[in-house]
Specification:
2 copies of one chain form a homodimer.
Chain A (H helix, E strand, L loop, with lengths): L1 E4 H7 L11 H17 L1 H12 L10 H9 L3 H19 L6 E5 L3 E9 L2 E5 L8 H14 L3 E5 L10 H10 L3 E3 L3 H10 L9 E3 L4 H10 L4 E2 L7 E6 L5 H12 L6 E6 L2 H17 L3 H11 L1 E4 L3 H11 L3 E5 L3 H4 L8 E4 L5 H6 L25 E8 L2 H17 L3 H8 L5
Parallel strand pairs in A: 1-11, 4-5, 4-7, 5-6, 7-8, 9-10, 9-12, 10-11, 12-13
Antiparallel strand pairs in A: 2-3, 3-14
C-alpha cells in the first residue's frame, strides 16, 4: 500500500465528474426486459429466470415449507447473532421515526405536516454467493418501523430453485410479508408495474448488479427508489493514537468487497504510516479473499501523509466517503469538522464491520461521494409527508389582495379569481 | 364538466401503470447536450442558448445592474405581496429544520445522527411566459433555512437577453447567490458537472419542460434531484356544506395550468354536483385562459358522485393527488383517513391558490400519483444525515462473536478479522 502526499494523491486522482457511465447497449437490454415484463407479466418473469438464473420455476413465491426448511438449517450461533442484530438495528431506527406536527397562527390558521408510511415497499436482495442476510435486516426493519403495510422481497433463485437459507431466515425475522424468487431487471420491473403474481409496490430499495441499478434508474419516477449505488469506500483518519493492526484490518474489510472498492488512510504521522504499510502487507498474506483485496489496494488503496488534521478533514469533505473512521485523540471533538460522510465511526473500537452488522445505524450508505448530498437508508425513506393548510374566512381576507397581485403577475388569473370569489364584500 | 359514477370513472380511466414515456429520440438529444456541455463547457452553453433561446450572450451571469433594473420595475403591491409570502413561507419551513441527535447505550456506547446542509444547490426556474417568482421563493427559502452554502439559479434568457424582472427580484429576496442565464438540458448539465463559469452543485431542484425533466433524470445519481414532475392535479372532496362557486373556481385554477392537468370533484351530494356543473360552465366563459381550461376540463375534469365519504377517501388514496381540498363538514376530523396526498386543504377558505403563493407550506408537490411515495419539497431536501457510531472496548466485546458469526456466514472473513483483532485476550 503506497504512502503518498496529498499533492501526489491529487495528481493521480484528478476528480472525475460523475461515476455513472452511459451505456446505451445495457440500457436497451434493460428497457427491453422492463417492457416485456409489463406486457407479458409472469410468463416473462419465468422465461427470464430460466434464461438468466438457469432454473425453470413453477411458482415464484417462496412457500411456508421452504421457510421451515431454511430455519432448520440455521446454527444456534447464527440465530443468536441475527436476533441481537435485529434488536440493535430496531433500537436505533426507532429514534428516526418522524411525527406529524401542527402549528397555529393568527385568526385560526392551522398549518401542519402529516407523516404517513408508504403503503408498500419492495426490497431487492442479491443472490448467489453474495447472499447477505444483513442486507435483509437493514432494508426491512426501517420499513417495518415506518409502518409500511406490505413488505415484499425479491431475490434471484439458486440453480436448484431454492433461496439462500440465511436470507430467508433474515426475511422472516425482519417481518417481510412475501419473498419472490426473481432477480435482475425483471424483478425491478415486476415490483414497479406489477404482474399477475407480483403486486406493484410504491418504492424499491436494496443493492444489485448493473442490470438492477439501471432498471431502478429507469423506473424511478413511476416508483420511488433509494440511491443508485456506485463503488464503496472507507477513509480512516488516524494519528499516533491509532493501532496500525486495527486500521489495516478495517481497510482490508472494505477492500474485500470489490476490486473497485477504495480504502484510504489519511494520517498526520509518518511513523504510523510506515507501521500501517507493513501491517497491511502482512494481513493481505493471511486473507481469504487475497486476490480481490490485493487488486483493490493496489488500484485504489493509499496512505496519505498530511501535516494537519485540518488538511485531513478538508480531504474527507471533498471525498464524502461512505465510511469514515476517526481514529484520533478525542474523535468526538472532531465531529463538527465533518460535513460529508455516510457513517462516522469514532475511536479504536468502532470498526466499519461493527456498523455493517450490529451497531444499529443502517449499513446502506451513500457511496462514491454521494454522501455530499444524500443520507443513509432510514425510517424516513419509508414515510412521506403531506402539508396541511387550514385558513379561516377572516385569515384569508388579510392576504387575499397579495395573492391576487402575485397570481396576476404570473398571468394565472383563474388562481386570482379563486381568491377574489372568497373576498368579503 | 361531466357528472359520473365511480364505476363509470373507473371504466374510463383504467389506471395506467406509470406516467413516464420512454422516448429514445428525446433521450439521445438530451444526452448529446449533456455530453457536449461536459466536453466544451461555456462554449457549448453559449451555442445552445443561441440555438434554443435565440439570443447570443457574452456573459452568462446576471449582473448587479440587471438586478437593480429589475427592482425598479416592481410595483409597490408586488413588493408587499412578495415580502408577505416570504415571511409566511419562512415561518412554516423553519419548523421543518431537523436537529442532530444522540443516544447513549450500555457500556459507553454512543450512537447518533448528524444533520448537515448541502454545500450547494442549483434551482431551475422556467423562463418565457411561464416565469414564476413564487417558484423561486418555494425553492430558495427552504435551501436557505437548511443552511446551504451556495444557492445558484438557472433560467433561460428572454430573446432580448434579459431575465423576467419578477423572477430576479424574487431571487434577490430569497437569498439566491448567483443567477445564470441558461435554460434547458444544457443548464442541468452545467449545474451537475460544472463549466468555467458555472460551479457544480450537489443537488438540482425546480420544474422544467421535457428536456429539463429528462436531463434531471440522467444526471440523477451524480447529483441529487427533486422529484420528476408529471401533469398535476386537484381533487376536491365536497358535501352539501361546500360552496359550488368556490369549488368551481378552484377546479379552474388547476385547469388553467395545462391541458393535461386534472381537476376532479368527488361529492356525496347530487344537488351539489349539479350546482357545481352549472357554476363551472359559467366560470369557464369568463376565464382568460378559457381554451386551456376547456380542454383540460373536457379531457380530465369530472364530478364523481359517490354514496359515502368513505368511498371518496378510498378514491383519493388511490389517486394520491397533488392537491386535495376537503370541503366537507368538520374536515379536520377526516384527516386521519387521508394517506396519500401532496397537500391537504381544509374547509371553504383554504383554496389551492392560497397554498401556491402564501400559506407557507411548499407548492412544489409530488404530482401524478407520486404523493403515494414522496413528499413536498422541504428543508429536509437540502440537508443530509450522517450516522455516528462510537463503541468502547468493553461494549465491542459483548457483540464481537455475533459479528464474527454473521460475517463468516456471508463469506466476508476480512470483516470478521477486523473484529477478531480487537477481541480481548
Amino acid at each position: 500500500m503506497r504512502i503518498v502526499t496529498m499533492e501526489q494523491y491529487s495528481l493521480e486522482n484528478k476528480q472525475g465528474n460523475g461515476f455513472q457511465q452511459n451505456d446505451f447497449e445495457l440500457d436497451k437490454t434493460v428497457l427491453g426486459i422492463i417492457e416485456t415484463v409489463r406486457e407479458q407479466g409472469d410468463q416473462a418473469l419465468k422465461e427470464y429466470t430460466e434464461k438468466f438464473d438457469g432454473v425453470s420455476l413453477e411458482d415464484l413465491i417462496v412457500t411456508p415449507e421452504e421457510f421451515e426448511q431454511a430455519q432448520k438449517q440455521m446454527t444456534e450461533e447464527f440465530r443468536t447473532g441475527l436476533q441481537k442484530a435485529k434488536e440493535r438495528i430496531t433500537a436505533f431506527h426507532e429514534e428516526q421515526k418522524e411525527k406529524s406536527w401542527f402549528i397555529q397562527q393568527e385568526k385560526g390558521i392551522l398549518l401542519g405536516q402529516q407523516v404517513t408510511p408508504l403503503d408498500s415497499v419492495g426490497i431487492y436482495v442479491p443472490g448467489g454467493k453474495a447472499a447477505y442476510p444483513s442486507t435483509v435486516l437493514m432494508n426491512a426493519i426501517p420499513a417495518k418501523i415506518a409502518g409500511v403495510g406490505r413488505i415484499a422481497m425479491v431475490t434471484p433463485p439458486q440453480k436448484d430453485g431454492t433461496v439462500n437459507p440465511h436470507v430467508l431466515v433474515a426475511a422472516q425475522e425482519a417481518g417481510v410479508d412475501v419473498v419472490y424468487k426473481i432477480g435482475g431487471a425483471q424483478a425491478i420491473a415486476a415490483l414497479a408495474y406489477g404482474t399477475e403474481t407480483v403486486q406493484k409496490v410504491m418504492k424499491i430499495t436494496g443493492p444489485g448488479n448493473a442490470f438492477v441499478a439501471r432498471a431502478k434508474k429507469w423506473v424511478f419516477g413511476d416508483v420511488a427508489i433509494d440511491m443508485i449505488a456506485g463503488p464503496s469506500e472507507i477513509c480512516v483518519v488516524a494519528d499516533d493514537s491509532a493501532a496500525p493492526e486495527f486500521v489495516a484490518a478495517d481497510l482490508l474489510s472494505q477492500a474485500e468487497h470489490d476490486e473497485r472498492a477504495t480504502a484510504i488512510c489519511v494520517t498526520t504521522s509518518s511513523v504510523f504510516a510506515e507501521a500501517l504499510q507493513q501491517e497491511v502487507a502482512a494481513q493481505i498474506e493471511q486473507a481469504d479473499r487475497k486476490l480481490i483485496i490485493e487488486q483493490s489496494i493496489t488500484d485504489n488503496g493509499r496512505i496519505i501523509l498530511v501535516d494537519t488534521l485540518e488538511e485531513a478533514f478538508q480531504f474527507v469533505n471533498e471525498l464524502a466517503p461512505e465510511h469514515l473512521q476517526l481514529m484520533v485523540d478525542n474523535p468526538m471533538e472532531q465531529l463538527p469538522f465533518i460535513r460529508n460522510a455516510g457513517a462516522i465511526f469514532l475511536g479504536n473500537y468502532s470498526p466499519e464491520a461493527l456498523g455493517d452488522y450490529m451497531a444499529g445505524p443502517n449499513h446502506t450508505l451513500p457511496t462514491s461521494g454521494t454522501a455530499a448530498f444524500s443520507s443513509p437508508l432510514g425510517v424516513y425513506d419509508f414515510m412521506k409527508r403531506s402539508s396541511i393548510i387550514h385558513y379561516t374566512e377572516l385569515a384569508l381576507q388579510d392576504v387575499a389582495n397579495d395573492i391576487i397581485t402575485i397570481a396576476n403577475a404570473e398571468g394565472l388569473t383563474a388562481h386570482a379569481y379563486s381568491i377574489q370569489v372568497r373576498k368579503a364584500d
